[in-house]
Each structure stands twice: as C-alpha cells, then as structure tokens.
Amino acid sequence: MYRFSRSIYRDLAPRVIEGVNDETGCRNRQKLLEACEDAIRRISTDRRYFARPSRSLFNSVRMYFPMGDQLYVWNVIDTNISLALELIETAPELLVIDGGPRECRAHTRKGTPCQREPLPARDYCPSHKHLEEPLEEVAYELHEEELQTA
Q1: Which of 11, 44, 86, 110 has the highest CB neighbour number within 10 Å of its CB?
Q2: Are residues 24 and 68 in the same domain?
Q3: Averaged pLDDT of the chain
Q4: pLDDT tens-place string over residues 59-73
C-alpha cells in the first residue's frame, strides 16, 4: 500500500516550497511524506470512516505548494487515492499495512481488543459480526438526517 503514498510523494516533492527557517530544506518534504503515508494507512485500516481521503490529504499538504501548482497537486493526489481505493475494493482481505494478520475492530468485555481475524471483506470476526453496520443503512440514515434539518 505504501507504493501509493510514495508515488504521490515522488510526483509532488520537486514542487514543495522550502521553509523560511528551515536550513536543510527538507522539513516540508518530510511533512508531505508523513501526510501521504498517514492518509494511505488510514484508507487501508479505517476506510469506512474516512469519507473523503483525497480532500483530507490535499487540505493537509496544500500549504507546501505555490498557488500555481495547486491544481496539479490535487490531480496527483486524487488519481493515486482513487487507484488505492480501487485496489482495496477489489481485494480488501489481502491488504494489511504492517504485514500482520487483520484484527477484529471490536473490544472484549474486559476492554482489550479482540484478537480474532475478521470475516473476509468485513471489519468484525464471527463473534462480533452483529456490530457491523451495512454501508447502505448508514448512508440512508445520514440522508434522512440531512432532510430533517433542511
């Protein structure tokens, strides 16, 4: 998964503005790399609750680029994030960032994280599958709330 964050970084690093008080000239590039890796990590581990990853990443790194490069930055970020999301949707159970086994998102009664492996394409193990909220119901509930507040 890090190939997507590294691809974003390689495309954008030459266009980063150097900081005024940065004698090495690397601080802003390092922040760009960290933001890219954090976004990709969150996409792979917490996709359901990360609604607009392209927008989030762009907003966190846009201050490191001149105004004339903002559209290019958005296009690079949006293209790579879209490719990452497409890969995750085609093979979600195969992708793990740190190489370890996937873990259930639930916690036990004692408050410790559940150690069981989740069902394929799910966030929860068989014991906690009742906690899973279908995406369609969540989207429908959000739409109803918007209509009621309008």
Answers
A1: 44
A2: yes
A3: 81
A4: 999 999 999 999 999
